[in-house]
Each structure stands twice: as structure tokens, then as C-alpha cells.
Amino acid sequence: MITIKCRIYPTIQQESKLLRTLDTCRWLYNYFLDKNIQSREDMQFILTELKEQEPWLTQFHSKMLQMVLHKIDSSRRALKALQRNGHKIGKLHFIKHDECNTFTYNQSGFKIERHGNTNLLWLSKIGCTEIRLHRPIDGEIKQITITKKAGSWYASLVVEKQWQLPEMINFKKSVGIDVGIRNYAYDSDGCITPNPRHLIKLQKPLIRANRILSRRVYGSQNYKKAKKHYQIMQERIARCRKDFLHKLSTNYSSKYDVIVLEKLQIPNMLRNHHLAQSISDASWGTFKQMIEYKSKIMVEINPRNTTVECSRCGSIIPKTLAIRTHECDQCGLTLDRDNNSANVIHDRGLMLLELPMVHREVTPVEILLGSMKQEKPIALSHG
Ligand SMILES: [Zn+2]
Fold first, then answer.
1. Percent of the chain surpassing pLDDT 90
2. Which of the four pLDDT bands, split at 50, 70 and 90, describes residue 247?
């Protein structure tokens, strides 16, 4: 299953229909939350009766209305699961006006047709809207979710891919990648991808938009305008970040068959406030997900000691975050700190797959750097 997210371009009439659909979903959601009916079967039954009392509901696709009940049901289940795991839980809230921004067509009531150069998305009881597909759909569409975000409309198509013969895997084409804040990625072949720092570059306009929003009277026309502007800024950053991650992950998965990454404990790391901004900016979790579905094999290894272990002899060389060079006093290996961890990550991945490890020889440049450092330790401390 893959999800393809595309923009749709409704006309003014279509948009008012879409907005009415969102409003109906909100009404239905709040209705059932208010009645506090627990079982899904009961909700289904009451919905059928409700349609007789409120005949206007029949103007909307019936399966789509059922998906609202499904949403309530699955949210409740998710809450219960959290409770079982020892989390404190609240309860489901009523959806406020303009907070409902998505509805779903499951299994039926949709079609994609091609008319000349344009693709049209047909939704039952709504009609045809223009959809911009940026990739071919090979497989069956199982579900379509329509979302309104920052004034634009999107359709997320869930496509079930046809089963394909597994491709040949070349285990020699393998790489270990160390992700970090200083460099977004440093791989075991010595390739460095600097951190794009989208948030920092685009942060000023975002902060400004947020400041303007906070000065507006809540709920006023100006407030709505400022809120929309703020959402557009957020969307822009998200799109830039996604674009970067897609390019990087596509690059790695086309170049290598086996990709080794560290298992990241992101929730733990996010508690550190200084790192939080950079980490959420870097969004390693998304990167890993992309690698996972794009690459032939992704291996996750235990991150313990990857930064301190020597990639040549395995001895533990403790270092603080400030020390950027790995210098082994046992075997004399001198390497960039991130390069060393990328090598360790790579080796551990190969070990997990029970493949022979290939030890890289140290290039003359690295040896030179190492000998220089021993003579003049201060000169290289910020290198
Ligand atoms: Zn060593």
C-alpha cells in the first residue's frame, strides 16, 4: 500500500460542496459524540434511523458518513490502547467550526478519469474536480481522503500495489549512514550531506507571522487572515523539508541496495530543548520511513556506542560532543567523528546480515590530519 497525495482544484461551486461535506462530517461527529454511543454497530444502526429524521443527510455519500463513525470508533480504540500502556488519557472533544478539515471515501464512490491532458477525480454526490497526478497510479485505489489545508485542497489516494517479483540484491552495494545535526547525513563512503536548516532560514517570516497572529483579536476577520498566512508559512517549510528528504532518500536507495541506519529514540531526544528544534527540523524519522520503502533492504542497528567505538579495532574511545575527530590510541585510526560512526553503523549492519566486513584503509589525507593534530591540538579543535 502506498499513499499518493495530490492537489485538487475545485471550482467555486465544487468548493462550496466540499465545504458542506466537511460541515456535515463535523455535525455527525459531534452528534455521535454527544449521544455517547459506544459500540460501532449501534452507531451504524442509529445513523440509518437518523437519515429518516434528517433527510438532507442523503445528499451525502453514505459510505463517507459511515467513515465518520469509523473515525470516532478508532479514536476511542487508540485512547484505550494508550490507557492500557499506562498513559493518562482525556476524552474526545467536539470538533469546533472550521476545525474539521478532512473526509474519506472508502472502497467506493470515486473514480479517476482522463480528459485530454487533465485528470478528473469523480466523487459521488460531489462531482468531478481537476486533480494533478504527479505520478502514474499502478494498482487499485482503495481509499481517498480529501483534506483542506491552508486554503488548498488535497486528495490522498491509498493505492494497493500489485505484487512484483523481488529484484536481485547486490549485497556489496551497501552503506552505513550516520544522521546528525552538524551534518544531516555522513555515510561510510565519506559522502557528506550538510544540514539544510530550512526552519532556520524560513524561521524569521514564520515568527513574524506568528507574532501578527497573536496580536489579532481571536475569531475576528483579521485573525482568520493572519492564521491562514501562518499556516501557509508552515506548509512552505514542511514542503521544503519533504522535498529535501525525498531527494536524499531517493539518491541513497538508487545508489545502494543495502542501507544501514541507527535505531533512533527520537521521543527521548526531543526532551532535550536545545536539540529539539534541530531534530524536528531534521526530521530523521521521516527520512528513515522514506528509506524503508524506497530501498531494497534497510537494516536498523543498535545505536549503543556507535560514536565512541573505533571502526577499525573496536576499542572504546570516549569523546564529548565537542570533539569532532575520532583518534584511536590503540590502532592509530584518525577520522572525522561522524565518518567513524558511519563505518561502525555499516559494519554492524553487515554483521546483522552475516556478511563479511570490508575494512577501509585510511587515506593519506586523514593520516596527515592526524599527525598534525598531535602536534597542534588547538589548531584543529574547531575543524
Ligand atoms: Zn582503533
1. 47
2. very high
Q: Looking at residue 272, what DSSP letter applies?
A: S
Give the Å distance between the CA of 316 and the centre of ligand 1: 8
The residues placing their C-beta within 5 Å of ligand 1, an ion, are: 310, 312-313, 328, 330-331, 333
Q: Determine the distance separating the centroid of ligand 1 and the alpha carbon of 309, expressed in angstroms.
A: 8
Which grid cell is 305? 556506542
In sequence order, what are the beta bridge partners of 259? 175, 298
Q: State the Cα angle at 213 between 210 and 217, rounded to 5°.
A: 155
Annotate 293-332 with DSSP letters as a single string.
Answer: HHSSEEEEE--TTTTTB-TTT--B----TT--EEE-TTT-
How is the chain split into domains, by residue range? 2-161, 167-383
Taking the centre of ligand 1 as the mean of its atom positions, its distance from the CA of residue 268, in whole angstroms, is 30
Task: Give the whole-angstrom CA distance, residue 380 versus residue 329.
Answer: 18
Encoded amino acid at 126, one letter: I
Q: How far is the CA of 258 from the centre of ligand 1 (A)?
A: 25
Ligand 1 geometric centre to CA of 330 (Å): 5
Condensed to tens digits (0 to 9), the pLDDT of residues 171-203 reads 888 999 998 877 889 999 999 988 776 667 787
Which amino acid type is present at position 135?
R
Residue 367 pLDDT grade (very low, low, confident, very high; cuts 50, 70, 90): very low
Position 282 scores a pLDDT of 62
Round the average pLDDT of the chain to a whole number and report it.
84
| Distance of alpha carbon 138 from alpha carbon 155, whole angstroms | 17
- φ, ψ for residue 250, nearest 5 deg: -65, -40
Distance 256 CA to ligand 1 centre (A): 27
- Kindly give the distance from the C-alpha atom of residue 355 to the centroid of ligand 1, in angstroms, as a whole number: 21
Q: Residue 334 Cα, ligand 1 centroid: separation in angstroms?
A: 9
Residue 188, phi then psi, degrees to nearest 5: -70, -10
Distance 371 CA to ligand 1 centre (A): 15
pTM listed for this prediction: 0.65
pLDDT tens readout for residues 116-166:
888 999 999 999 999 999 888 888 999 999 999 888 999 999 999 876 666
